Backbone:
C-alpha cells in the first residue's frame, strides 16, 4: 500500500537512469510516458485499449474534476482509479496550471495583482483577466459557468486527496518566459512557501484518511530559464521537511525553452536526490523525450498525442502526417508500417481518411490509440536502449529518421 522508487540502471556519465516506481495501484517502469486523461477519460478510448497499447499510468486534472463532477463524487466512487475503471497507477496535477492558464487567455501570462510590471501584465487581447494570484492562493472564474472559486495550497491538497490518485502534485504558481526575472524570483519563493503548506496539509490529510492507500506528493520545481533560480528551487524543495513529511518525488514545471530543455532539466537533476522520481510536465515530442531522459527525467505526460490525433495528425517513425488529406484516400496501408497497435493491425489509412471526412467519432478513437501507442512505445524503447547501453545509438537512429522524413515532407 506504499510508494517507493528504485533506480535500476544509469546512463554512463549523465543523469539519465532506469527505475521502477511502486504505487498502491501497481508499478511503473521508468522512463515512462504517462497518458493524459484530463477529465478522468482519455477522450474516446476505453481503459482496456489503454492497457493493450501499453500505457502504464494515467494523469487526470484536479481543476477539471473539481469543477465537474466534483472531487467529493470521485471520493465516494472510491477514488480516481475506481471511478474511471483504470485499475493501474494514476496521477493528478494540482490544478494550478489550469487555474492560471485558462484564466489568462490563450496561455499567455498571468500577472500578480500588485505587480504592475509591463512584461508581467501581458494578457491576450480581448480577454479579461479571470485569475488573480495573491500570497495565499489564486481566485479564478470557472470556464464552465463563470462562478468564482478559490484555490490555495490547502484546497489543492484536499481536492487531490479526494480524487485519490497515487501521485499528486504540490500547488505551484505558473509563470511563463515572458515574466520578468524579478517576478520569477518572487514566484520561486512563493512556490516554496506554498510547498511547505502543501506538505503540512498532505501530512494532516494522510493521517485523517488513514484507511486510504498512500498518495505520494511531488513538489514542483520552478525557475523558468534561470540556472540559479532552478537550482535554488530544486535544493529548497529537496531539503524541505514539515512535521517529518518530505516530498516523495518532484515535478519539473514551468516555462522551458525547447532548445534548452535538456540543460534546464540537468540543473534540476543535479540538485534533486537520486532516490526520488522526477516527472517532467507536458512534453511528448520525440527530440524532447530523448533530451529529458538523458538529463534525468523519469516520467512525462502530455495531452498532445491525443489532441492532435483528433485533428487527424498521425505520428510515425518517418515523421508526422495528416491522414485526412487526399493522399490517404486510396491508401490501403496501415497508419504506420510495422506498428503493432490495434488500429494499425485492423484498419487502413483510407478507412481513417473516410472516418475523418465523414466526421465519425471512431476516427478520434482509432487515431488516438495509434498516437498514444507510438509515444508509449518510443519511451519504452528509450528505456530498453538505455538499459542495454544503446541510448546514443538509438537516439541518433530514431531522430535522424523522424526528422529527416519531416523535413522532406513525407
Ligand atoms: Zn499504429
Residues:
Amino acid at each position: 500500500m506504499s510508494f517507493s522508487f528504485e533506480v535500476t540502471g544509469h546512463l554512463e556519465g549523465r543523469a539519465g537512469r532506469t527505475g521502477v516506481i511502486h504505487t498502491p495501484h501497481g508499478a511503473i517502469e521508468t522512463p515512462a510516458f504517462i497518458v493524459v486523461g484530463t477529465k478522468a477519460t482519455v477522450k474516446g478510448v476505453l481503459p482496456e485499449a489503454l492497457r493493450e497499447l501499453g500505457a502504464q499510468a494515467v494523469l487526470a486534472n484536479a481543476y477539471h474534476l473539481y469543477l465537474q463532477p466534483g472531487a467529493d463524487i470521485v471520493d465516494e466512487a472510491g477514488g480516481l482509479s475506481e471511478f474511471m475503471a483504470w485499475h493501474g497507477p494514476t496521477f493528478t496535477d494540482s490544478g494550478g496550471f489550469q487555474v492560471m492558464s485558462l484564466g489568462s487567455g490563450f496561455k499567455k501570462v498571468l500577472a500578480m495583482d500588485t505587480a504592475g510590471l509591463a512584461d508581467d501584465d501581458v494578457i491576450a487581447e480581448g480577454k479579461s483577466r479571470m485569475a488573480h494570484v495573491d500570497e495565499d492562493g489564486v481566485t479564478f472564474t470557472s470556464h464552465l459557468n463563470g462562478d468564482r472559486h478559490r484555490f490555495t495550497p490547502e484546497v489543492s491538497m484536499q481536492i487531490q486527496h479526494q480524487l485519490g490518485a497515487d501521485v499528486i502534485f504540490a500547488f505551484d504558481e505558473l509563470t511563463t518566459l515572458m515574466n520578468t526575472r524579478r517576478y520569477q524570483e518572487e514566484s520561486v519563493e512563493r512556490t516554496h512557501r506554498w510547498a511547505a503548506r502543501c506538505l503540512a496539509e498532505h501530512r494532516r490529510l494522510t493521517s485523517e484518511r488513514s484507511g486510504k492507500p498512500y498518495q505520494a506528493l511531488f513538489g514542483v520545481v520552478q525557475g523558468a530559464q534561470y540556472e540559479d533560480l532552478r537550482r535554488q528551487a530544486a535544493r529548497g524543495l529537496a531539503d524541505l521537511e514539515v512535521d517529518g513529511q518530505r516530498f516523495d518525488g518532484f515535478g519539473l514545471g514551468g516555462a522551458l525553452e525547447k532548445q534548452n530543455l535538456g540543460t534546464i532539466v540537468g540543473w534540476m537533476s543535479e540538485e534533486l536526490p537520486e532516490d526520488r522520481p522526477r516527472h517532467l510536465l507536458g512534453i511528448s515530442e520525440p527530440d524532447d523525450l530523448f533530451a529529458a531522459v538523458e538529463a534525468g527525467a523519469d516520467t512525462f505526460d502530455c495531452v498532445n498525442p491525443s489532441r492532435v490525433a483528433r485533428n487527424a495528425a498521425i505520428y510515425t517513425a518517418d515523421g508526422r502526417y495528416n491522414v485526412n488529406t487526399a493522399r490517404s484516400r486510396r491508401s490501403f496501408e496501415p497508419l504506420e508500417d510495422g506498428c503493432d497497435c490495434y488500429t494499425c493491425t485492423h484498419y487502413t489509412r483510407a478507412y481513417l481518411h473516410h472516418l475523418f471526412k465523414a466526421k465519425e467519432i471512431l476516427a478520434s478513437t482509432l487515431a488516438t490509440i495509434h498516437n498514444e501507442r507510438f509515444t508509449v512505445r518510443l519511451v519504452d524503447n528509450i528505456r530498453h536502449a538505455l538499459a542495454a547501453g544503446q541510448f546514443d545509438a538509438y537516439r541518433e537512429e530514431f531522430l535522424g529518421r523522424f526528422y529527416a522524413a519531416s523535413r522532406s515532407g513525407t
